[in-house]
Design a protein that fits this description.
With 221 residues, the chain is of the alpha/beta class. The protein has helices at residues 23-36, 43-48, 54-65, 71-85, 96-104, 118-124, 150-159, 173-182, 212-220; strands spanning 10-13, 109-113, 135-137, 166-170, 185-189, 201-204. The protein has 2 domains: 10-22 and 90-220, Rossmann fold (3-Layer(aba) Sandwich), CATH 3.40.50; 23-88, DNA polymerase, domain 1, CATH 1.10.150.
Length: 221
């Protein structure tokens, strides 16, 4: 699915922190997993791991605690706790639901590209709806996770889109690095001081008011 007569073929969305307000849920899940190792988990630890897949976070956690443990087992604990906390739902970020609806209602293809494992994607994105996207790529469905470009390259390939004609929306340093490495025009959403705009990277405080014309201009530039 591509838009005819437009430089923009697809819009690719990260999930956690970009479309849904799940940072606090992940922070609480991380704290619980770290405590199970006898370690502590600070706000700085959380910040360093924003956007990372569960296994790399678990490896960091194990090293931080100074213990021997299996990273995949700890990642499973982390994801299970996040899933439990998701039972209360995750709220959409400002402007997220509206922007996804605009893209979904147009001729431009739309994908969800997340480091979260497949079993957690649908409950996490429930307030927006996984059916709003033409395809979704989960963290356990790629050979390498963000900051590697593999997740965004897979999403573009599934859509039959040229990554250079895709716009990606992200909120983390690892996610931005992944999207840029894939060749996408990239929008970092959140703290303006955390990113330096330039080249194919733009920075916005939120998704409120973003429309397709603006995204098309970003890709055309």
């Amino acid at each position: 699915m591509t838009a005819t007569g437009s430089p923009l073929q697809a819009v690719l969305f990260d999930m956690d922190g970009t479309l849904i307000d799940s940072g606090d849920l992940w922070g609480r899940a991380e704290s619980a997993a770290a405590a199970s190792l006898g370690g502590e988990w600070t706000e700085e630890d959380h910040r360093r791991n924003i956007g990372c897949a569960a296994v790399p976070v678990a490896r960091y956690m194990i090293e931080r605690a100074g213990v021997r443990a299996d990273a995949h087992e700890i990642a499973g604990r982390l994801q299970a706790e996040f899933g439990r906390l998701l039972a209360g739902g995750a709220e959409p970020r400002p402007g997220a639901k509206e922007l996804v609806a605009r893209v979904a209602g147009s001729s431009v293809a739309c994908a969800l590209v997340t480091s979260t494992r497949r079993s957690l994607v649908e409950p996490a994105i429930g307030a927006i709806g996984v059916d709003s996207f033409d395809v979704s790529v989960a963290g356990d469905e790629v050979e390498a996770t963000k900051p590697d470009p593999a997740p965004y390259l897979k999403a573009a390939r599934l859509l039959g889109a040229d990554p250079a004609r895709c716009a990606a929306f992200e909120d983390s340093a690892v996610g931005v690095a992944s999207a840029l490495a894939a060749g996408c025009a990239t929008v970092a959403v959140g703290d303006r001081g955390a990113f330096t705009p330039g080249g194919r990277l733009r920075v916005l405080e939120s998704l409120e008011g973003v429309d397709l014309a603006w995204i098309e201009g970003l890709v055309a530039a």
